[in-house]
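User: Predict the full complex structure for these chains.
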Amino acid sequence: MRYIKDKQMSFPDLADWVISQTLKAGADDCKVSLSKRRTVEINYRDRKPEVIKEATTQGLYLEVFANNRYAGQSTPDFRRSTLETFVTDLIASAGIMEEDPFRTLPDPKYYEGRSTVDLQLADPDYDRLTPEERHEMTKSVEEACLNQGGDKVISVEAGEYDESYEEFIRSSNGFEGSFQSTYCNVGASMTAQDEGDRRPAGYNYIGCRYRGDLPPLEEIGSEAARRTLDLMVGKKIATTKIPIILLNRGAGRVLNGLMSPMSAGSIQQKRSFLADKKGKPIGSKLLTIIDDPFIPRGLGSRYYDGDGFPARKRDLIAEGTVNEFLVNWYYSRKLEWEPTSGSISNLLIPPGTRSLEEIIRDLNRCILITDYIGGNSNSTTGDFSVGVIGKLYEKGNFVQNVAEMNIADNHMSFWNKLVEVANDPYIYSQARFPSLVIDDVVVAGI
Amino acid sequence: MKPIPRRKFIQGTALAGGALLLLPPGLAACSSGGVLTSGDYFLREFGIDETLCRKLLAKALSRGGDFADLYFEYTVSNYLGLEDGKVNRSYGDISLGVGIRTVKGDQIGYGYTQELTEESMMSAAATASTLCDMTATPVGSSFTKLKPGNYYPVAADFDGIPAKSKLSLLQQVNEKCFALSPEIVKVSAGFQSNIKRILIASSDGVIAEDIIPGGYIYSSVVAERNGKREQSSWDFGGRRDLSFYTDEVINDVAAKSVNNAMKLFDAIQPPAGEMPVVLGPGVTGVLLHEAIGHGMEADFNRKKISTYSTMLGKKVAEPFVNIIDDGTNMHLNGSLNVDDEGNPGKKTILVENGILTSYIHDKISAKYYGVEPTGNGRRQDFQNYPIPRMRNTYMLGGDASAEDVIREAGNGIFVENVSNGQVKIGEGDFAFYVSQGRMIENGKLTAPIKDVNIMGNGPKMLANITMAANDLQMHLGGGGQCGKNGQGVPVSFGLPTCLVKSLTVGGTEQKGGRS
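Assistant: Here is the predicted structure of the two-chain assembly.
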């Protein structure tokens, strides 16, 4: 049997056809999500291409609701002949599930009020990017990294990745949403020769919706080398209680431990140490976390969430106090709460006034945490523990690089020790956090 | 589960059996002698014949290159979830496509498509060929069919097993968890299963097919005592069919999750700092995987970015240390009948009597080092090219008893369960998260501990393993995934009880007092 492609249907037409087939086959309701993604990836090592990769993929995800039962499945195969079987099989799968009265499509009233602001998610110049330009971009980053790394370089890998994406979603009860987006990521990783057999590896990869928003390519490559050289002669020091600074670009690694317990799913399942903390303080007054979906060209910007609820800017934590949980439609029904939105878009912490350098200068002794290794956070208890890499400073002067060390605490005490926020939010991320100063943390080493 | 005696687990985990999930109608399988066989599946269902394979390979090598290969994949995955006493969610995924690779030296051109039309596949082959700019490399006129291993036989009737069988397993897990303790307030459970069919054809004349089952059952509980809550979870699985999930397994998965949660109420945070660490048998093998195994993957060594790149043939551990990466264990999560480059599943000794004897190779690194491929070329799916990856990685046991090892540690910690780990290849530094363990005081196990990260340096740790017990256990979980370069592949690992002279424990208090 040969694989024979059907005549192409537009996404709206295909969605209508799938919905019609699904309802005809016995579903009470359904939601179909269609997507298409084109990706290109180029990697260089030793000044020659190491990997050239390119493809276009598509996906269809169908959720069915039948007699208070639910199932969802995805497929890349858009042929109508196989989709007919796909739909009937999926309804059969839902049929053997146990009844769950909470599992429905959202009340359509919650679809209303979507913003029409232009989020600028798709770079109009994306299609003009040529294969030659991709190679040139990668070579520029690699060259800058090699130059900055000098005789310490063992190996440099540079890469360019870009994608264009489109999706279309329609539900049987009136939701429709679509958008197009682009993304371009460029960077390098370097391995350096250190003392003995140590070969520290650092990296710097920067991603943007618009290629034109990338920093100068030479700067990206040089920064990769600088970040690697910052790891040289990294050693652990004696276990100590000390102020630490979570550098802006990695601060999310620790802050993420607050997001899972804020979800209604964790709360309803009794796996959240924040379940009874709404309206109560969990951190210092400096801890404000804003979920902002409307940042133009933001990596997490969006018009609607996974339930189809219109995007909305909100304070999740305001001046240390839990203001709003992440409540999706399903768990809103289980908890009998109003839905908010079960997922986050761009996260921000309002920046402070002083630079990182000024803050370090004023701290007697501190460790700047530049990267993490391993670790985990327990959403039920709030306990966390994570390996850290960084730099030790005394009276503003660099003392040594530190490695193989660890911080452990409970979120309920840790964020109360947030004593200053720097003025340096990291903009190349969905988590646009500034550097954060935490007082009196046990950093485990020797 | 009972510990598996040293060197016996290879045979001990073999099970005959049924199947993991339903396949869509119309995609029926061939069977022979009661066991499902791969038998020209892609020819039958998608018209992929040898002539077409040669045409695609010729296109991939039309601008030169050392070799090219095709990787066809059809995977069906299914997840059933139980929450609040009901199996009320089913999620599924179908993955279908081909990845086409052109290789020149250590350079890779790669294209893939989900549409198995000749036009679309030729386009993907053309993308792969853009790596080179030379004259065409000829493709052989015939293929030799590889006879793969048989490390995870799948029963022929597997597509006749109704999903309702899995529903009742989840209900049993739920009931048993609640029955084990009145302090259990929430139970969630899940059954994940998948079946992957692959066809590999390479320009050096090898063609291979395989059917790879996978899956696991898990239980996750929340317990409440005096207003305090603790959670714990456990899973069992592997490349297995439904017959593995017996009453004993269901009882064990429930008991492990409930009993572990109960212990956590009394757990303390250990003091922070360097101390002796005893790794309990089984799941702690994740440390072997992270701290040592990754550094022995040959791509990192070929690029000189691993600390092990200058240590081949040298002493890296005490003479009693033997480390193996094995694709031939029956039904374990990392077992391979054939790797994703068309090499047969093998067993590779990495460290023998304390000497580093081999890296973990794919075809590119094997050619670079002038050795035979070790069967470790693996990929997540057709959208990714293969790279050297571990399979089932374990250390053989020593002669001591577990009690001897704990006594020898004196004062430190004992690691019972870990949830995740990470390594920095170049530095060799690693971390892993201890979800559960015990204090060791004066050579005896004392207070339980929890939620603590342990840091160390892989080569130093390997050299600092000073004692091993005779109780090697393989981890029988099915959910273990190893991530590398954005690709996840299933793996397993194992370890006997062993003593590491010193590691950094990331507690919340400085040494001198408990918190």
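Chain A has a mean pLDDT of 94.
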